[in-house]
Amino acid sequence: MKKQLLKIVKIGGNVINDEIALFSFLQDFASLDGPKILVHGGGKKATEVSSAMGLQPQMINGRRVTDEATVEVVTMVYAGLLNKKIVAQLQKNNCNAIGLSGADANCILAHKRIVKDIDYGFAGDVDAVNSKFINVLLENDVTPVFCAITHDKEGQLLNTNADTIVSEVAIGMSSLYETELNFVFELKGVLKNIEDKNSVIKQINLEKYKELIDAGIIADGMLPKMHNCFNALEKGVGKVKIGDASLLQSDNKLYTTLSLK
Amino acid sequence: MKKQLLKIVKIGGNVINDEIALFSFLQDFASLDGPKILVHGGGKKATEVSSAMGLQPQMINGRRVTDEATVEVVTMVYAGLLNKKIVAQLQKNNCNAIGLSGADANCILAHKRIVKDIDYGFAGDVDAVNSKFINVLLENDVTPVFCAITHDKEGQLLNTNADTIVSEVAIGMSSLYETELNFVFELKGVLKNIEDKNSVIKQINLEKYKELIDAGIIADGMLPKMHNCFNALEKGVGKVKIGDASLLQSDNKLYTTLSLK
To answer: What positions are marked as the site Transition state stabilizer (chains A, B) (predicted)?
Structure first.
């Protein structure tokens, strides 16, 4: 039997920081037919609140180092303010959203990242996704909205990379649904020429992905993102789309589709 | 058919402000048999964060006046930090908790309090409880943990009195369950003599309640709390218990039970 299509969408800082862009995007998301899941990253609000509270944000290799005071701030901002603002907006748009951290109903279990060279503090690496409970929500026409906070089932909340969360959730749901992962970021897709914002490569399969890495076209910050996407495809996710905030609009044709073959 | 017993428990600032007391209480709550719901109020953390962010908390008649900046702070602290800390602790204690605001799955719909003499700002008065969805959670052995934030389904989050939330949730669930409401506060129960912390009145029915008001024994801050409880009893809640943080311990005998007759 053909499985039902589940769309899983990730939005990051660039959409979240601008309330007008965010609310407009949430209208597009709310109007998607069928079961869907939203995952959101952080945004500059956490830095604002940290500064106001006298904390100095620390970043190593683009990842926030999370001490105890910082995990409190990101829990406040991501699981509290951003998550509930998004849920309230989706409710306004008749999407029956529910906001979740990984601790809620043990949806996303993680462990504190093992210290090798760098101690990232209370940063989580994902171990398991509670696809059974997430499916209970979907079957009741409820739309899960995940923030990037997980837990270790020992009482510790963990700051977790939102790209990782969305691909782990998509992988976890792939046994029950045909899954499509949508990454919304600041560009219209993977670009052939970084100077030309419209030079979107429309299709990338595994073979082409390796060519693009060798050619230096996929580099820097795109490398972990693309690695993450192909990992998801290899573990059962049906399709990955990458594009800007207009990705979900039905008349949008300019985005990148990733597939294995 | 006899309905199943559902215990609904409310904790307030005095338990929440002290992490050791809170975690000990959550162990008691986690070990309760059968379906259960927790509702928590705020605590001094919201005031701390407000001050750090340069906001001046404003109170009228014991209720926080909620401007836009304040609704952001209480959403961060109540729906974010406190709610997720509580959920993570319950998960640690093998209670499959899920943290919710009223916006989540439209669980508690409210409206901005109508301005009569005082404009309380973004303070919510409860209109409806989504008992159907709350029951889906309970039937899946998931324990809802509500913070005192609701929404108006127009995108606005609303700061809401936690005593009101817990009684509205209990009333809402009374069509499906035999309900018992447990109020945890700073005293061992309703006291005959406020100077004697052990002078607990063990049973109060509607008749005695009126006598105690006339005698001036129920006064001040206890008046709205007791009014709230008897309102719940009149609207279908089976039993109300009031006591301190040891209320849920099976060997605790010192608390007040309220009933209509």
So the answer is: 10, 225
- Inter-chain CB proximity A87 and B101 less than 8 Å: yes
Question: Which of A45, A87, A127 is the mutation pick for testing B, counting most B CBs within 10 A?
Answer: A87
Q: Name the band, by pLDDT with cuts 50, 70 and 90, for residue A64.
A: low
B76 in contact with chain A, both atoms CB, cutoff 8 A = yes
Record: contact A81-B80, CB cut-off 8 A: yes
Q: Which of B144, B158, B167 is nearest to B103 (CA)?
A: B158
Please enumerate, by residue number, every residue of B annotated as part of a binding site for substrate: 42-43, 64, 159
Mean pLDDT in order along chain B per 10 residues (261 residues): 91 90 96 97 87 81 80 96 98 98 98 88 95 98 98 97 96 97 94 94 96 92 91 96 94 95 90
What is the reported pLDDT for B116?
86
- Please report the domains of chain A, with CATH numbers, ordered by start residue: 5-258 (3.40.1160.10)
Which residues are within 8 A (CB) of A96 and not within 5 positions of it... i.e. 6 or more apart?
Answer: A90, A141, A142, A143, B105, B106
- Strand segments (E) across B147-236: 149-151, 157-159, 178-184, 203-204
Q: What pLDDT score does B210 carry? A: 95
CB of A156 within 8 Å of a chain B CB? The answer is yes
Chain B positions in Cβ-Cβ contact with residue A154 (cut-off 8 Å): 92
DSSP-derived secondary structure for chain A = -PPPEEEEEEE-HHHHS-HHHHHHHHHHHHT--S-EEEEE---HHHHHHHHHTT----EETTEE-B-HHHHHHHIIIIIIIIHHHHHHHHHHTT--EEEE-TTGGG-EEEEEPPPSS---BSBEEEEEE-HHHHHHHHHTT-EEEE-SEEE-SSS-EEE--HHHHHHHHHHHHTTTSEEEEEEE-SSSSSBSSTT-TT-B--EE-HHHHHHHHHTTSS-TTHHHHHHHHHHHHHTT--EEEEE-TTTT-TT----EEE---
ipTM of predicted complex: 0.95
